Every structure is written in C-alpha cells, then in structure tokens.
C-alpha cells in the first residue's frame, strides 16, 4: 500500500515508517520537525530495504504540501501520528494543543477529502478516558470518554472529527474507513538499534528512569506513594513500540469501506512505578537515586487496557508483555545513543 505517515520523524511514527518500508510498502513522511528528528528520517532512508520513502518537511496544516505528497505518491492510507503529546504542557498552553492537534487535524482531513483518502489510522490515547471508574479497570473501549487534560480532549476531538467526516463520506457514497487506536503507555525501541525515543523534555517514566541509570539526570522522583495500589505507586500499561506498530499494520489491512473502529492498544496488565524502577535496576545493573515526592494532580491510581476487542475482531495481541524485555530494548537505545539523535 502507499501510506502517508504524519509525524514520521518522531518516536512512534518513525518506527511505523520503518516497519512499513521493510514490508515493501511505499511510505511518504510529513513532519515539521517541531518535536521530531531529521536523523530519524535519515535512519529510515538508510534502512529502507527496498521500500520507497519520500519525505516532506512541512506542517500537517500546510494543505498544498500534504495534498502534493499524497498525489505524487499515490497515497490511499494515512497514519496520523503528528501531534503534541505532553499532558503537562497541554495544561500550561491549551491553545497550542488545540491549534496543533485539532486545527492541524482538520486541515489534514480536508487534504484527505480533496485527494480521496480511503483509510485513516489515528493515534488516539487512553487519556481520552480520563479517570475510569474502578469497575472499568481494566478499561474497555466502551468506557465513557471523559478527558481530564487539554491533551486528552484534543485526542477526543480527533476521534469525533473522524466520526463526523466518515458519516458524511458514507452518506455521499465515498469509501472512507478509520480506526482510532487508543494507546496506553508506549515504550521500548527498535530492536535493530536504528530508532528510539528522544523527547525533550522527556516526561515518560521508562526513559526518565533509564536516563537516571545512565547518569544523565540526577534522580528519579516517585510522584505519590500513597495510592490505593499494592505498593502505593501508580500502575500503568506499557506496550512495546514494535507491537504497537504491528497493530497499526493489522488494523490498516483489516479496515473495510465505511468502518469506524476504536481499539485499545495495551498489554492488558499494569506495572507500578516501583516495579519499573526495580526492573530498570535489574536490567541496567546501575545504581541511581530515587526520591519520594507528592502526588501529581490528575494521575489516576491505576490505568490499564482491556485489549480484548482487537484480539476478538482482528486476531491481534501484544507479543511482548514482560517488563524486563521492554526495558532492555529501551535501555539498548539509550546506552548506545546517550544524546539521542544528537549523537
Ligand atoms: N508516546 C506515547 O506513549 C503515546 C501514548 C498515547 C498516544 N500517543 C500519540 O502518538 C503520537 C506519536 O507520539 P510520539 O510519542 O511518537 O510523539 P513525538 O513527539 O515523538 O512525535 C510526534 C511527531 O509529530 C511531529 N509533529 C507535531 N506536530 C506537527 C505538525 N503540526 N505538523 C507536522 N509534524 C508535526 C513532531 O515533529 C514529531 O516528529 C501522538 O499523536 C501522541 O499523541 C503517544
């Protein structure tokens, strides 16, 4: 297939692009490099393995650039990863998030409408669930969506935009299908060693812990040790980035005209902050300082997926569920790229 990947110079988008290229698909990447890395695109180019890669440094809101890319490369599928993705930053600057994630996506959908895109796979998030009620943990897709951050709300708007656009297409007899994939916590790196996670500032727990283990930050703070969980720290679902990308490929292939699907992408069990720290100590065999700090407002005690729907409907499930394996793959990247793509 010929696939447009928005945000392909970022963490997850670059892994998706690499996988599609290796499978022999034609890939066009659009990224404005606001949070991504030219070196990630260069790594894709080097490892293209026969697949055809095109790249445009442009904003998704630049309709001429996006439509040009779609038309020039016969694109029929869009995987939409480009977004700002920090919960904390979204609370500091909500308008930035609405402009980039919502207005940007409207422009992208206009470009899709103008060029007749038939399949659309959207990076949504478990943050659209907000704080699920206790009886909905693990959380299924029909849990009410009630985001508690501007970021989560921009992702929910994205799902609604797609739903309404798809309805119009159906009514007009135009083929269009979409899937909103609600990721839980994505972690790990390309086991081939070309690609990894390089966010600045880094807010995700596993990279933060590994940076501490490598002496790149002074300490790790556990934000809250008095949650109603077995060891008092927050519990989250961590999915390996290669598994996540595998699900995108499976969903892309399963979509049929007029489908409007939503799937959780997680492993279906949670690990606590203390378990992550212990696993990182075991994997890295390096000491690092851990301090206990106050809770961060808005952090649900437990959040993990019920991933049964995607397995039932398209037969996909995560292959890596062992925390040590996930952390070891992330560690290999951070150890070999101490300054990320800047190395
Ligand atoms: N990382 C996670 O754990 C996680 C969890 C849930 C959902 N998601 C979603 O997955 C997607 C990818 O996340 P990531 O961790 O790879 O983030 P990332 O920041 O590494 O990658 C995003 C990429 O999009 C690009 N981008 C942003 N706005 C753009 C715009 N207007 N035009 C063109 N390019 C733009 C950035 O430059 C960057 O390369 C995001 O939509 C995010 O909300 C991520």
UniProtKB/TrEMBL annotation:
<keyword id="KW-0413">Isomerase</keyword>
<dbReference type="GO" id="GO:0006012">
    <property type="term" value="P:galactose metabolic process"/>
</dbReference>
<dbReference type="InterPro" id="IPR036291">
    <property type="entry name" value="NAD(P)-bd_dom_sf"/>
</dbReference>
<dbReference type="InterPro" id="IPR001509">
    <property type="entry name" value="Epimerase_deHydtase"/>
</dbReference>
<comment type="pathway">
    <text>Carbohydrate metabolism; galactose metabolism.</text>
</comment>
<feature type="domain" description="NAD-dependent epimerase/dehydratase">
    <location>
        <begin position="3"/>
        <end position="266"/>
    </location>
</feature>
<comment type="subunit">
    <text>Homodimer.</text>
</comment>
<protein>
    <recommendedName>
        <fullName>UDP-glucose 4-epimerase</fullName>
        <ecNumber>5.1.3.2</ecNumber>
    </recommendedName>
</protein>
<dbReference type="InterPro" id="IPR005886">
    <property type="entry name" value="UDP_G4E"/>
</dbReference>
<keyword id="KW-0520">NAD</keyword>
<keyword id="KW-0119">Carbohydrate metabolism</keyword>
<comment type="similarity">
    <text>Belongs to the NAD(P)-dependent epimerase/dehydratase family.</text>
</comment>
<dbReference type="GO" id="GO:0003978">
    <property type="term" value="F:UDP-glucose 4-epimerase activity"/>
</dbReference>
<dbReference type="Pfam" id="PF01370">
    <property type="entry name" value="Epimerase"/>
</dbReference>
